Amino acid sequence: MKAKTLMIQGTGSGVGKSLLTAAFCRYFYKAGYKVAPFKAQNMALNSFVTERGEEMGRAQAYQAEACGLKPEVIMDFLNQQCLTREILKCHQAGTMVLGICGGFQMLGKFIKDPDNMESLKKEAEGLSLFDFETTLVPEKLTRQVQLETVKSRVFPEGISCEGYEIHMGRTKFNRDYPVLFSAEKGDNPMNSGISNQAGTVFGTYLHGFLDKDQFRENILQYIRKQKGYSEPKNKFDYAQFRTRELDKLADLVKTSINMEAVKKMLQ
Which of 123, 136, 197, 263 has the most neighbouring CB atoms within 10 Å? Predict the structure, then answer.
């Protein structure tokens, strides 16, 4: 019998997905279900070793314990060939593809890990949607950047862009592609962001660049135009949304914890 699946999703890192998944695993295990955790793609650091000496995510090992199972590495990785096939199938059907950081690296031909820093493999094939290859190196690049858009299919020139980079990969481009942003002094602008000639595949090393409303709206407007979608009646204000959510979180703490007692501890 085919297993029933339940997907736990979140809008970012550190928002409680792994812990909530463990809670659901434990609930169904105690209710008499045969249950097992599975994470389609693990971008976090691996910190658990199975009985077979294989490396997997600590969160998935904890979830396995909640299910009454021994941790197995198969719980931690989606079959790469299946993932590649599905992404390419969607792209060929007209879906636009955006890869950020590790996802950007996957858009190329190869990801090489000569020192086995993140994998037991020395090399993995990418999606080959761009002609480049990435090699992982020991020195991690971490920096905040402030760039501007250049005129492209997606953006007009001169929109301010703020984001950050955090990656160990160094990408070598085998051909030139249309760039999306200006570059830090001495950098190759293709590292900041590129598109294919058709304007259907995009990649960048920048995290956080979609936080700015004007910037995000230009991307959505481009997609609407390509797909024939109508404009929404109300624009989404991300800054206001974050403020509201933080206020809701503070109110939740206020109603759940004796904050007067906490205040006394601080006096």
Answer: 136
Which residues are within 8 A (CB) of 218 and not within 5 positions of it... i.e. 6 or more apart?
A: 149, 154, 155, 156, 159
Which residues, 6 or more positions from 84, have their beta carbon under 8 angstroms from its beta carbon?
A: 125, 127
Residue 207 and residue 165: Cα distance in Å, rounded? Answer: 6
Catalytic residues: 101, 207
Long-range interactions of 120-128: CB distance < 8 A, separation 24+ = 120/54, 120/55, 124/80, 125/80, 125/84, 127/84, 127/87, 127/88
In the chain, the DSSP E strands lie at 48-49, 55-56, 97-100, 110-112, 123-125, 132-148, 160-173, 194-195, 201-204
Residue 213 has pLDDT above 70, yes or no: yes
For residue range 99-136, list pLDDT tens digits in order.
999 999 999 999 999 998 887 789 989 999 999 999 99
Question: Considering only CA atoms, which of 119, 134, 124, 126 is closest in space to residue 87?
Answer: 126
The tens digit of pLDDT for each residue in 191-212 reads: 999 999 999 999 999 988 888 8
